[in-house]
Design goal:
- The protein has 281 residues and is of the alpha/beta class.
- It has one domain (4-20, 31-116, 126-275): 3-Layer(aba) Sandwich (UDP-N-acetylmuramoyl-L-alanine:D-glutamate ligase).
- Helix content is 28%, strand content 27%.
- It contains seven helices and 13 strands.
- It has helices at 40-50, 65-76, 133-142, 181-184, 224-237, 242-256, 269-280; strands at 4-7, 11-18, 32-38, 55-62, 80-87, 93-100, 106-111, 128-131, 151-156, 170-173, 190-194, 200-203, 208-211.
- A nine-stranded mixed β-sheet has the order 5-4-1-8-9-10-11-12-13. A four-stranded mixed β-sheet has the order 3-2-6-7.
- The longest helix has 15 residues, at 242-256.
Length: 281
């Protein structure tokens, strides 16, 4: 039985790297391109699997080539797909992402669907359930709340109706929502906000602080936040203290920036251990 269930949306993204965004009527030649699986909770699942944490994914994909691509990639990562629903009535979500090498920004265009998976019969057997913005409503529909058999974690990028920090054991909002981790850390929950190259701020209601980002060569920051959150959940499975947990998540997210897409650069547990050992020496 897997330790973590990730619930959210899975996409197939075409990612293009350019030196800079074109101005009006300007043609820019792409430096590289790649096709990859995306989605916050899905990318977090890949991070967990790479770090040796057993994980299942729950989402809905279409009965199409993109859906089959997602299933194939997840299985190749060792992620359980028994709770991935193949729905013939929907089209798998797709995205086109342009990454600017000089500006480190990107434009995203996604065609999402609204279908949600059914509640797994074995949900009580998971230690952690990690959700993204889409998965937040899904587990509410399931009637899953904090204080049950599984601890709850959320990666949330935008203020959403019904969002409450105390609904989650691990609350990881973006800077778009809050940077005040101390006020958000209530009812014995952990709050962490990743600020990219500036590092991450955290509070568990007792301890708080800032952990700097690692220094590394960056190809693209695409998906780094999603990787960060997956790594954070891994540290909770490992029962790491909060400051060490955030430092580990920073390292995993930083190393993931080695690749153009959000997943192929995610380190394995062995790569992470080697990096941390080198950083300490």
């Amino acid at each position: 039985m897997a330790q973590v269930l990730c619930v959210g949306i899975a996409t197939v993204d075409t990612i293009v790297l350019v030196d800079k965004y074109p101005s009006a009527n300007e043609r820019v030649v792409a430096m590289d391109s790649v096709r990859a699986v995306g989605g916050p909770a899905t990318t977090a699942a890949v991070a967990l699997a790479r770090l040796g944490v057993s994980v299942d994914l729950s989402c809905v994909v279409g009965d199409d080539e993109a859906g089959r691509f997602i299933l194939e990639r997840m299985r190749s990562e060792g992620i359980g797909t028994k709770h991935v629903v193949v729905d013939r009535s929907v089209r798998t979500a797709t995205g086109t992402i342009v990454v600017s090498k000089s500006e480190q920004t990107r434009a995203i265009m996604v065609q999402p669907h609204a279908a949600r998976p059914a509640k797994p019969a074995d949900i009580s057997e998971y230690k952690w359930i990690h959700v993204d913005q889409f998965g937040m409503q899904t587990i509410k529909d399931w009637g899953v709340v904090r204080g049950g058999s599984a601890k709850l974690s959320i990666d949330i990028g935008y203020q959403t109706p019904g969002l409450n920090s105390t609904d989650y054991d691990l609350y990881a909002p973006s800077e778009n929502i809050t940077t005040d981790v101390s006020s958000a850390a209530k009812d014995k929950n952990i709050v962490v906000v990743s600020k990219g190259g500036e590092g991450s701020v955290y509070s568990d209601g007792i301890n708080s602080g800032v952990v700097p980002a690692i220094k590394t060569e960056i190809v693209s920051t695409l998906g780094a936040g999603d990787v960060f959150h997956g790594a954070l959940v891994a540290t909770q499975v490992w029962n790491k203290p909060i400051e060490e947990a955030v430092a580990i998540a920073n390292a995993v997210a930083g190393l993931s920036c080695r690749a153009l897409d959000g997943q192929s650069g995610i380190p394995t547990k062995a790569e992470l251990d080697a990096f941390l050992a080198g950083a300490r020496s």
